[in-house]
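Feature request, filed as a ticket because there's no other form

It would be nice if the structure record came with a short human-readable summary line next to the tokens. Right now we just get the raw output. Example of a typical job, pasted below so the devs can see what we mean:
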Amino acid sequence: MHNIYFIQPNYVASPGAAIDEYYLPYSVGVLWAAAQQSPIVREHYNIADIVFRRELVEHVVDRMQDPFICVFSCYIWNWEYNKKLAQAVKQQWPNCKIIFGGPQVTDRPFEKLFFSNHRYVDCVINGEGEVILQEIMEQLHLGKKIKRVYQQPRIADLTHLPSPYLTGVFDKIIKDHPQIHWHAVLETNRGCPYACTYCDWGSATYSKIKKFNIERVLKEIEWFGQQQIEYLFIADANFGIFPERDQEIAQKLADVKNQYNGYPRSINANWQKNSNIASVDISKILGSRGFTVSAQSMDLDVLKAVRRDNMKVNNLKELFDYCHKQNIPTYTDMILGMPNETLVSWKTGLLNLLDYGQHDMIIVYFTQLLENAEMMQQLDEYKIEFVKTDNWEAYYGVDTTYTQDPVREWKLIVNQTNTMSRDDMVRSYMFSWLISIFHGMGYTQSISKYLHKTEIMSYREFYDKLELYIEKSSGILNSEYTRIKKSVTDFFTTGHYDYDYKVMRYVPADTLLWSSLFYFPKDLAQVKLELQQFFDHAVRVKFFTDLELYKQLTDFQNVNVVDYFKTYPEQITVPDQIFNTINDQPVDNVMLSITVDMHPALKNLNIQEFCSTLFVQKRNSLHKLQISTISNITTI
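Raw output as currently delivered:
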């Protein structure tokens, strides 16, 4: 029997948690499930091990026994590790065939001199590997020579591919590691009709979407419940793009959760790029923590440059309004540093999102250069420069802290283009911080919404004034602004930045702007005092003659910030002129009595735990006070 080893090491799924959580290695699982359809493979190959987590390379090599083939699934979170392990295996067993596949393996191996630079690799597979790996295994068993490069075309019919879950590929892993809480990936289809240049997904699969057999998908969902899967990620590029089919899948997931005591515990998905009301309704069935409304940029020139100009933005307001009425949090992803983006277009895009009704969460990512994404071929065209930085996802939480991982992984992050200088990148990020923290977390949201909706002051004027005020002030707001600005400047320059380990755990660079949540809640009284000074100077003096209304507005603003030092539930009174205007409801000229409460997940914690929970759970809208009652008191 030939011993075959599959290598798909992943990072800890929930770093810092008291329990071990890992993804089941789906990519290599589908390869082995498909290969076993061959009589030759079933008769002559034995799966010796599946390496699913980052262990010391020497420990993995020590437990190997006469490997005949080692198959590596490679991506940005395990690329350096896989190369080091492959070298060690080849040195120990020179006759072992090393096969590399996955998105990180260049699709231009000869142009990039891949085999000259990686002499320990025998062949690479570009594209889907289920069919071609089976062929390679058969050829090697028969003693035949294999090619160095296999350019695999799209698999025409997915219905013939067996499921690794249903064929028992992961049964031994689960049995051997009873302490691990498993995460899993669900594929219901493959392919993406879009070809965004920053994405190696669309570049690789740009074509008609191909579906897996619905019976297989429903049986896999049943398996997830039976195996008590902790977290399930639906890895379709555009879940919800087939409304009837995807609604059936969502309903099955909901039914399985009810049947198996809440498993899978948490479910998330890549929602379709052109989201609509039907997609939101599907997310409601799933009971998902929120709905992602993709944007990446709000500027048409940027979207055209990255081939995303077929995305619709005119239905954003409708989606935000619908989600708000359904009490579904929304998240909008934006990518900083893409071609044709400018400081002005970036700031305008963020403010437009507020105008369309995005008041829950705007998540800002850095533009990342991926090996097989088209943007890697656009560096000269757009004068794209980049910095090499730690790939924090690869080892975040490994061992005790991320710094203890012996193999470093890397990312290439855009830090300058021909339309956005490095200084403008920093200024854009700082404006993102301003919107994400002060508007998104509620510190200024109520008052800015009221001013905007009553046409007293636009979002642009309000936040431009707030940014200038913070820059010129000398308190905690300026201190945080200065800290964040220095950190992101260092990051764009060197790929690294310093932070206080005593205050917060390791914060990945693309969530650096949220790290203020480790500071502001501890000094919330001072934060509110400095903001009140801003309100008085920028708003009251110029725009309010009715001082009682102004006081009611600022009082309501201050109430609408989660306060660790308050006792909840709390009852407040507010004119419906303020409350209903902010919430887009008719004004009846009455006083409202409102009871608000803090989210249960934030209660009974010390202040450090409170801050950490806010940081980790920001996507779950824990920062929003929960309204339990609203009643009219009297006509004003």
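Something like this underneath would help us a lot:
The chain is about 40% helix and 20% strand.
Residues 395-403 have pLDDT under 50 and may be disordered.
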